[in-house]
Amino acid sequence: MMIPLRGVGPAWVPRSSDLEVDVKAEEILTGELVTEFDPGTASDRAFRESAALPPGGDDAAVRSVDRAAALLVALGDADGAASVTDLSHALDLHKSTVSRLLSTLERRGLVEQDRESGHFRLGVGIIRLAQSAERTLDIRTIAQSELEELAKATHETVSLEVFDGVGAAVAICQIDGPNLTPMPDITGRPVAMHAIAAGKVLLASLPERTVLSIARRGLVQYTPRTITDPRALLEELALVRRRGYAVATGEWDERLSAAAVPVCDARGTVIATVVVWGASSRVTALNLPTLVNAARDAARGISRKLGWSGAAQRRTGIVPVLKEEDDDEREREVSDDELVS
Question: Where would a tag sit more exposed on the chain, N or C end, judged by fewer CB atoms within 10 A?
Fold first, then answer.
């Protein structure tokens, strides 16, 4: 049976400029860039899987294209510049072959060489290609299967929400789970971010000056639990960054509670949030750990479809929600006594 999907208007994917996010990777990463390659990385697997090429007279040309593609993936995995020797070892290719491929890619602007170190990195041509691909992405379509599975697994309503660029969170789609109590349709409805779990995740990914600008417009009190003090809000957002998820128990509507986790794009920027929500009588401290873990798995799947690759792209303090973690550790983390404080 198909689960109804609610959506709004034409497909829209917020860009980092729309969200006013200017957190840079350099501000989060510590230590020197590592250019060592793991035999298990995507680039190495891509090359080794290329052994099974289609037969025919064009095998050599196809193999060259495949090697060039694997080379680009390898440079992406390096999270910085890499030497010809590094790439040769990573792809099990002779250095002369790697050099020829790099020269061709450099002429096309897909890689560039640092004249001092001689190392190579991805070029601006890749950025143009990525921007073109990004414009064609429909995040709602990409997220649909994960959201449907999440609704089925949790028996609660789930939504995908984004920052409207002004001061509110907006659900761009909502899927109702097979629960007994139907939830209101919030699709397309702007909601104050300080009072909902989705809004806290989105605020936690924004620069503090943007958060304070939003807070200065007024933090409306919807229930006795609503955060109305800007300092308390900043403390809450710091907690969200440390944990990698947000909860809201009766803060916007006393009858509703929710858990939210971030969705990241290929740059590691938080562009949306996956939310599981329902009646406060069902979404309680007892089952919130399960809901958070299920939501983070869905968010990880969506993020990977958007090009997010993991630990190498820690561009915001909130990204740890998407890292691979031990299940027991995740259970302890989300069972904290402060969960419903």
Answer: N
